[in-house]
């Protein structure tokens, strides 16, 4: 990143009038998100015409088509908000660590959240939705600290590649622990295995209600960290020289990202690669200014997860692929491409 350009951005106390290009991109992304949401309501085992979708949204469920749409509305809402949470969290994590490989899945944070939930269910009999969320947030936070500590050891400190390797190793180890815990428990094995794949099927507004407050807090903390992430991108020494409290800025942004990861994992299961793919694509659209990048990453994550859900429904009719499988099929090649193309030292 050009330090002089970023310094110019930081020195502006408030944003100037948004560029016409970015505004046009924002409008275009919002239109795409709306179209994708409507397609999600239309597509499934039973395809529904657009006018029936509009009637169902208005509350009329008198026909089979409209009743089918009514069952898809919570699923679509969950895909949108969970995708937005994961896309935003990934962008924030890349800014905090200055690591282009940072992603809640690659760094093992989603797996840590899922391990905490599985331990709570299997060993302590926890079953309430609020408890799941707290467990997932605790697991995500503990894993992020653990991975960063491991990745910081040795020469060079916490380089992007070391963090990615530490996170991948942690994710594999935690996944093995989840299997070891679940295998002897036939009473919970089916539900846990389905949840572990990561998906938005079977969503209801009652099931999602406990997570709304956590998501709002996470979104607010992350979006308010945009200017601080711009400062951190200059490097810790220069950021401190500009008067920024580096440790405090990282802690606030990290708390927001961890809350988003934990809340999304609690309700959907661990879904990977959304937070890796989306920020890179958004940088091509709006550049490196986090005041633009963060909201675009949230919208991009919502679009990617919803499209992945649609693809999963179409690919295996009359059954379906869980959205976690589809995002892995898209994200794994992208991860390899980023590793091979970039000198993954810092953003």
Give a written overview of the molecule.
With 347 residues, the protein is mainly α. It has a single domain (3-9, 22-341), classed as ABC transporter involved in vitamin B12 uptake, BtuC. Helices cover 75% and strands 0% of the residues. Helix 5 (109-124) crosses helix 13.
Task: Sum this structure up briefly.
With 347 residues, the protein is mostly helical. The protein is built from 16 helices and no strands.
Key phrases:
0% strand; ABC transporter involved in vitamin B12 uptake, BtuC; 347 residues
If classified by CATH, what would the architecture be? Orthogonal Bundle
Helical fraction equals: over 70%
Discrete helix count: 16
The chain-level structural class is mainly alpha
Q: How many runs of DSSP E, i.e. beta strands?
A: 0
- Parts with pLDDT < 50 across at least 5 consecutive residues: 9-17
CATH class, anyone?
A: Mainly Alpha
Query: What is the averaged pLDDT score?
Result: 86
N- to C-terminal separation? 7 Å
Radius of gyration: 20 Å
Q: Strand content of the residues, in percent?
A: under 5%
Largest sheet: none
CATH topology: ABC transporter involved in vitamin B12 uptake, BtuC
CATH level-4 homologous superfamily: ABC transporter involved in vitamin B12 uptake, BtuC
Q: Which of globular, elongated, flat, extended, rod-shaped describes the shape?
A: globular
Task: Write down the secondary-structure element order.
Answer: HHHHHHHHHHHHHHHH
> How many domain regions?
1
């Amino acid at each position: 990143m050009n330090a002089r350009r970023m310094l110019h951005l930081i020195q502006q106390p408030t944003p100037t009038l948004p560029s016409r290009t970015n505004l046009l991109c924002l409008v275009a992304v919002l239109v795409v998100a709306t179209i994708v949401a409507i397609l999600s309501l239309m597509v499934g085992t039973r395809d529904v015409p657009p006018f029936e979708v509009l009637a169902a949204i208005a509350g009329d469920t008198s026909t089979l088509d409209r009743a089918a749409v009514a069952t898809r509305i919570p699923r679509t809402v969950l895909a949108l908000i969970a995708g937005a949470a994961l896309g935003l969290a990934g962008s924030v994590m890349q800014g905090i660590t200055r690591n282009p490989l940072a992603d809640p899945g690659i760094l093992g944070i989603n797996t840590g959240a899922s391990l905490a939930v599985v331990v709570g269910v299997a060993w302590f009999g926890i079953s309430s939705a609020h408890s799941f969320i707290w467990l997932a947030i605790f697991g995500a936070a503990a894993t992020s600290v653990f991975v960063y500590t491991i990745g910081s050891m040795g020469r060079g400190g916490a380089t992007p590649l070391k963090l990615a390797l530490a996170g991948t190793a942690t994710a594999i180890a935690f996944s093995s622990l989840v299997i070891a815990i679940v295998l002897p428990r036939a009473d919970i094995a089916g539900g846990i295995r389905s949840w572990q794949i990561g998906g938005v099927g079977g969503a209801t507004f009652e099931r999602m209600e406990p997570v709304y407050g956590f998501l709002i807090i996470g979104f607010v903390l992350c979006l308010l960290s945009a200017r601080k992430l711009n400062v951190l991108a200059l490097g810790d020494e220069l950021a401190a020289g500009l008067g920024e409290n580096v440790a405090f800025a990282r802690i606030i942004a990290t708390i927001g990202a961890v809350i988003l990861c934990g809340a999304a994992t609690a309700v959907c299961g661990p879904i990977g690669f959304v937070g890796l793919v989306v920020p890179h694509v958004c940088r091509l659209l709006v550049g490196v200014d986090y005041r633009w990048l963060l909201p675009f990453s949230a919208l991009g994550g919502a679009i990617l997860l919803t499209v992945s859900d649609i693809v999963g429904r179409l690919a295996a009719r009359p059954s379906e692929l869980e959205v976690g499988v589809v995002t892995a099929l898209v994200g794994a090649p992208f991860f390899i491409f980023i590793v091979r193309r970039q000198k993954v030292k810092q953003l």
